[in-house]
């Protein structure tokens, strides 16, 4: 494949120029660009500058308030709410993070609810940011209703990711971030474009029958991972990052979308737990004990989630990244267009 | 099968007499018996009075402090810790619940850590108890290291259940409670006793190769549900209900057990979130909106987790329960023995 080699600074510059051209205010340009750089840096290409094309579509559909100024609300000693005012969620997260950290340190546990945001990015940059403060983080968000509940036939849930971060002394945090759907919607779309069948368990047709045809699954419903257990978790995400924080469910988000195929609109919930709130001065000793759990996993040759991302990060910070030529040209087109 | 019919009062009386005979102090007898009654009432037989046999084994192994008096500790505005002092965990949960509810109402979110407890019961009675106060609940606990991580061959995790409760106005809460292992250990033991093969995906042999032989899997390792995603969740449970609260991991619990095959020993973490802390006076309106999510699931013929338990509850409260004659006789034997 024909590729272009870019340093991370060049990635950042390109992302900023495209986002500026798309009309985002400078603060949003800065915040959104950093998540795209993080995606490229960790070789998580689906969350890299490819997303600028997704932004382009969502912004052209009129679904983003380009200069939204998020507003912080203090509703309870353990809760911070950030109203994103219809803008991309990254800036809202940045605004709320110091308050979340402060409240978690004071109370031992705290929650941040981001409301009324357009959401397209992975959750791992956020749980990493919380863990960087020595806190344990749990984050989730609904999306668009594409996924049927276990035993059902019709979409109710979004891909509803859950992400977790655990601070590790002197090194990157332990982080996972996965969709509660069996696979990403984009993965099914890639199979459709390639004319390839999808594995059993990814989707059902409009009558709820198992299918291996990508197009049929996209017109029917996706399935959750892990059967009824994954379905239960997906429903939990709907509830705690939807009605609990006064924001949309995945069904409401896709109704709000009204066929525009824009990024999901709604809320996100992030919990932060402070080990010191549970353990006081003994926190360091117990965090060290957690390392034995990680060691027991890696010593038997199993990988921890995010290991690949951290390995990529070491490489790309030094060597830069490669981007498909076609994507690079498409982005240049956005700058010229 | 030969069975005995008992009212729930008779179940309670039988459980109390056996637990008293086993030497538990009156407060523990009361608290433990109620979880066994709840198991029978909801026709969750594995968590009913069958567990009196498990208690018998664990107590005879000297692994339970029979008259432990749990101690409440206030470590942070959003955290309550209860040291179970080596006793069964039910009494510790009861002691901590009012403080958890109070802190969640004041802060919007709070956590209860139960430490140094012997744990054998399901988590759904507890998330139900929290949800009965109008709070959202999330609970988890490690167990004994029986389960290999995804990509691994050797046990690191316990069956590590996760339970969730969501208050529903005017009716039973939405509740799920599942092991992050592919199946319960007891289920594999039932297959072994029946000489039946186990399905693929439940376990591996001592070299990490897939097996359908129950005995081989019990000597090797169980697997998590949902591949690497279930494995990530199981690891999260190890961390947040282990080192985060200063208590044992599943590996430490089984080492502490030292071959006694007693119930797991360690901690449990329960989070409580108050909708009013996020939504103020709008909480009722948004809880009502959550009902649309449940309706969208049940309207397509899919079941919600716990529906069967609630249906059983309606029946058994009126008609009583049936218990296998063999179990009934075994329990009578404990009373006579």
Description:
The structure is a homodimer of 337-residue chains. Chain A contains 13 helices and twelve strands. Chain A is α+β, with helices and mostly antiparallel strands and 337 residues long. Chain A has two domains: 92 residues, Orthogonal Bundle (Hypothetical Oxidoreductase Yiak, Chain: A, domain 1), CATH 1.10.1530.10; 193 residues, Ribosomal Protein S8, Chain: A, domain 1, CATH 3.30.1370. In chain A, a hairpin with a 2-residue loop joins strand 2 and strand 3. The interface between A and B is large, with 72 and 72 residues.
Radius of gyration of chain A: 20 Å
State the domain count of chain A.
Answer: 2
The separation of the N and C termini of chain A measures: 25 Å
Number of strands of chain A: 12
Placed side by side, the strands forming the largest sheet of chain A appear as: 2-3-4-11-5-6-7
Percent helix of chain A: 40-55%
Instruction: Give start-end ranges of low-pLDDT stretches of chain A.
Output: none
CATH architect. name of the largest domain in chain A: 2-Layer Sandwich
Largest interface: A-B, 72 and 72 residues
Strand content of chain A: 15-25%
What number is the mean pLDDT of chain A?
Answer: 96
Could you name the CATH class of the largest domain in chain A?
Answer: Alpha Beta
């Amino acid at each position: 494949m024909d590729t272009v080699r870019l340093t991370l600074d060049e990635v950042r510059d390109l992302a900023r120029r495209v986002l500026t051209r798309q009309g985002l205010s400078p603060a949003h340009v800065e915040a959104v660009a950093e998540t795209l750089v993080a995606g490229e840096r960790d070789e998580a290409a689906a969350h890299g500058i490819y997303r600028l094309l997704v932004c382009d579509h969502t912004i052209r559909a009129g679904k983003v308030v380009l200069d939204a100024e998020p507003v912080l609300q203090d509703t309870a000693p353990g809760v911070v709410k950030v109203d994103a005012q219809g803008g991309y969620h990254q800036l809202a997260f940045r605004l709320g993070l110091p308050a979340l950290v402060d409240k978690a340190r004071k109370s031992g546990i705290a929650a941040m609810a981001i409301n009324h945001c357009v959401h397209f990015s992975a959750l791992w940059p956020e749980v990493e940011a919380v863990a960087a403060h020595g806190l344990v983080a749990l984050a989730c968000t609904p999306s668009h209703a594409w996924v049927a509940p276990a035993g059902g036939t019709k979409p109710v849930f979004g891909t509803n990711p859950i992400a977790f971060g655990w601070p590790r002394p002197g090194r990157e945090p332990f982080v996972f971030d996965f969709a509660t759907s069996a696979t990403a919607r984009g993965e099914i779309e890639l199979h459709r474009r390639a004319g390839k069948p999808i594995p059993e368990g990814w989707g059902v047709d409009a009558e709820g029958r198992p299918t291996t045809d990508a197009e049929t699954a996209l017109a029917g419903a996706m399935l959750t991972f892990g059967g009824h257990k994954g379905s239960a978790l997906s429903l939990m995400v709907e509830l705690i990052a939807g009605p609990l924080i006064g924001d949309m469910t995945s069904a409401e988000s896709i109704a709000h979308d009204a066929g525009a195929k824009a990024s999901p609109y709604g809320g996100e919930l992030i919990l932060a737990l402070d080990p010191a709130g549970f353990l006081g001065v003994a926190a360091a000793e117990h965090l060290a004990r957690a390392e034995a759990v990680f060691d027991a996993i890696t010593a038997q040759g199993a990988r921890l989630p995010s290991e690949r991302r951290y390995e990529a990060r070491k490489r790309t910070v030094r060597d830069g990244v490669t981007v498909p030529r076609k994507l690079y040209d498409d982005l240049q087109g956005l700058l010229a267009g």
